[in-house]
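Why run this: before we spend reagent on co-expression, it is cheaper to look at a predicted model of the complex and decide which construct boundaries make sense. The entries below are exactly what would go into the expression plan.
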Amino acid sequence: MLTFTIRRLLMAIPTLLFISLIIFLILDLAPSDPTANLPLTIPPDVRADIRASLGLDEPIHIRFALWLQQFFVNEPLNLFEHWTGWNFGGEDRTRVISWQTRSPVVDIIAQRMPQTLWVVGTAYIVGILIALPIGIYSAYRQYSIFDQAGTFITMVGFSIPPFFSGVLVIVIFAVQLQWFPSVYDTTHVVIGWDSFVIQIKQMILPVMVLALQITSQISRFMRASMLDNLTQDYVRTARAKGLKESTVVLVHVLRNSMIPVITVIALGVPQVFGGAIITEQVFKVNGLGHLLIGAIQSGDLPTVQTLTFIFAVLIVLFNLIADVLYGILDPRIRYD
Amino acid sequence: MLDGATPSVLDVKDLTTTFKTRVGAVHAVNNVSFNLKAGELLGVVGESGSGKSVTMMSLIGLVPSPPARVTGGPVMFEGQDLLTASNEQLRKVRGARIGFVFQDPMTSLNPVFSVGFQVMEPLRKHMGMNKTRARARARELLDLVGIPDAARRLDDFPHQFSGGMRQRVMIAIALACDPKVLIADEPTTALDVTIQAQIIELMKDLRDKLGMAVIWITHDLGVIAGIADRVLVMYGGQIVEHAPVRDLFANPRHPYTRALLLTVPNVRGERAQRLRVIEGQPPILRAAPTACPFRDRCEHAFDRCSRENPARRLVGPVHDVACFWDPETGASSDV
Ligand SMILES: Nc1ncnc2c1ncn2[C@@H]1O[C@H](COP(=O)(O)OP(=O)(O)OP(=O)(O)O)[C@@H](O)[C@H]1O
Ligand code: SF4
Ligand SMILES: [Mg+2]
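The model came back. C-alpha cells follow.
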C-alpha cells in the first residue's frame, strides 16, 4: 500500500505538469491584457513597459518556466517562511501577482478560502450526515412510503438548480419569515457566543441549498449500494447465525456498502474547495467560487490560472486518496 | 441403526411457502411434512427448483418476507413452534440450535471481515464468550473442519481461501455452537470432485463425533446413497416419496424417483449427468396444486392424475409415496 501510494504520488507529478501546461496554453489564447483596465490616456509605450515589467513580452516557454518557478518554488517557500517565521532571503522572490488587485494571488486565495470552507464544507458534512441514514433506510425498506418520499425529494434536489432553490429559500426564510439574513456577511468575525449565533444564522440558507444537492446525490448512491449488498448471500449467512437485524444491516451490509460510497465522498471533496460558484453568487459569499468568477470577468489570468491549477491538484490528490481508501476498506484489493 | 423409537428433534407439518412476485404467485413449497430424528442424516433430493432450499429456509425464517409467505405448521423444534415463534426466539435458534450451510461457499462469507471474526460471531452472540475465548474456540473449530494452520488463518479474509476451504469455514460457523440440527444445502455442489469427497467424509465424521442430526440437500443420488439414513424426494414443492435409503434404491415407487435412479451416473464422479436428463421441464407453480405436479412428464399418467393431487400413502413401514400408480401391478390404485 505504501509503495502504491508513493508510486501514485510520483506519477502525479508529470500529470500535474501536463495539466498546468494545458491550462497555461489555453489561457494564453485569451485576449486578456493586464493594461486593458487602465485609463485610455496612458500612452501605448507606457503600456508596453508595464507589460514588459510583468514579463509578458517574453516567448511563451520562458513565461511558462517562470510561472512554474513562481508557483512551485517561490510560493511554497514563501508559505513556509510565513509558517515558520524563518527567512531564506525571500524579499526578491517574484510571486504570482493578480492583474486585477496587484497583490499576490496566493494571499488572496488564503483570504477567501475560509469563507468557502465554512459554507461549502459545512454543507458537505451536513449533506453527507443526512444522506447516509436516508440511503440506508430507503434501501432497507425499499418501495416503502419512506423510500418513495425519499426518491421524490432527492429527485427534486437533483433537478432544482441552486440559482432557483437559493432564491426560493431567500424569499421564504429571509424575506417572508425574516428568520435568516439573505446575504452572507463576509466581514463578520466570531468573537463570542452572540457573534457565533449570527454566523450560524447567516450560514443556514446557503448550507441548506448546497446540502440539498449533496444529500440528493449521496443518498441515492448509498441506497443503490445498500440494495446491491442486501441481496447478497453473505447477508443470509449473517441472519442464519442468529444475529440481530441491526447487526446484519449496520455491520455486515453497511461495511460493504460504504466502500464505493466513501470513495465517492472523497472524490467530491475538491468540489468543496472549488466552491459552489452559483450558490456563492446568490448569497454573496465571498469565497473561492466568487473569486474565480470575478477573475474571469476582469481577465485576471494569473488568478484564474492559479485557482484552476489548485483545483486540478486537489482533484488528482483526492483521486489518489479515494484509491487508497478503497484499498484500505476492501481487503480484496491489493496494490502491489 | 435408527428405529421408530428414536425421538424426533424436528417435526414439520404442512409447511407451505408462497412467493408473491410481480409476474404472479409462486407456490414453491406445498404442504410439506417430515420429521428428523436425533443423530440421523436425512437426505433431500430433487431437481433444481423443486423447493428444497426454500423448504429448509422457511423452517427458520430465512426466506425473505416479503415476497415470501410461510403458512401451515407447526414446525416443532425443542418444544416450540418455529413458525409462530417471535423473531427474538427464532434468533436464539438460528446459528445456535440449528446450523445452516449454504449452497455457494464463494459468496456465502462476508468479503470484508476476517474469517476469524465470522466464526467468532455466533460464539460471542450465543455462547456469551469474550474475544479471547471465542478466538481460541474458533481456532479449534477450524482445526476440526480440517483447515491447516488454523491459528494463523483466523486473520485471513475469505478471498484468501479456496472454495473447499471456504465451505469448511461455513461448516465451522454452522457447528460453532454445537447445534442439534445441521442443515446442509448442497454443501458440495460448487466444489470439484475430490473436494466434494473430502467434505462428505468430514460431515460423516462430524455427525458421528458430535451426534447431531443432519439434513443434507443434494442433486446427487450417489452422495445420498453413501451417507443418508432416510431420503425425501421432492418434486414441484412437494414430497413425492419418502423412504429409508436402502428401500428407496431397492424399491423406488414414484415414477419420478425411478426416473432419477435411471439417470444416476454409474461411474462415481461423472457428474455432468444431472437430474435434468428427465424429459420435460419442471413445473412453475402459479397456483396451489390440484393435480399431480409430475403428470406432464410421467409415463404412467392417467385421468385421475390431472384431476387430483395424490396424497402420500404408506407402502412400507417407513416408506410412503404420493402417486396413484403401483409399480408392482402396473395398475393405478384406488381408482
Ligand atoms: N425470492 C424468491 N422469489 C420468488 N421465487 C422464489 C424465490 N426464491 C425461490 N423462489 C422459487 O421457489 C422455487 C423453489 O426454489 P428452491 O431454491 O427451493 O429450489 P431448489 O430445490 O433449492 O433448487 P436448486 O437445486 O437449484 O437449489 C423456485 O421455483 C424458485 O423460482
Ligand atoms: S400420480 Fe399419476 S402422474 Fe403423478 S406420478 Fe403418479 S402416475 Fe405419474
Ligand atoms: Mg437450492
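Chain B touches chain A at residues 57, 60, 62, 87, 90-96, 99-100, 102, 104, 107-114, 121-122, 125-126, 157, 159, 170, 173-174 (CB under 8 Å). The longest strand of chain B covers residues 8-21. Bring this page to Monday's planning discussion.
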